[in-house]
Amino acid sequence: MHVFTYTDARNNLKSVLDKVIDDADVAFITRKEGGHAVVMGQDHYDSLMETLYLLSSPNNTTRLNESIAQLR
Question: Is the pTM above the cut of 0.90?
C-alpha cells in the first residue's frame, strides 16, 4: 500500500500510476480537507469486482469454499 498526499500524487501522477499497476497494489491519496481517495490498476479493480460478484450469491460462496477446502 502506498500513501500519497494530494499534492505529491498530482506532481507525480505517472509514478503513482506505475506503482499501482506494476505492483498490483493500491495508492491512498489523502487530502487536508478529508474525502480521501484510492487509486488502483484496472486489472486489480476487475479482479475485486469479479470476486464481489461471485461472493454475492450464498450458493456461489458455499461452492467456492468447498472447492478451496478440496484443494487443501
Answer: no
18 and 2 in a common domain:
yes
With a cut of 90, say whether residue 45 has pLDDT above it: yes
Where in the sequence is the domain holding 13, given as residue range(s)?
1-40
Looking at the DSSP assignment, which residues form a beta bridge with residue 3?
28
Q: Are residues 30 and 59 in the same domain?
A: no
Q: What is the mean pLDDT of the chain?
A: 94
Which segments of the chain are extended strands (E)? 2-5, 26-30, 37-40
Cell of 71: 484443494
CATH number, domain with residue 19: 3.40.1620.10
Q: What is the pLDDT of residue 30?
A: 97
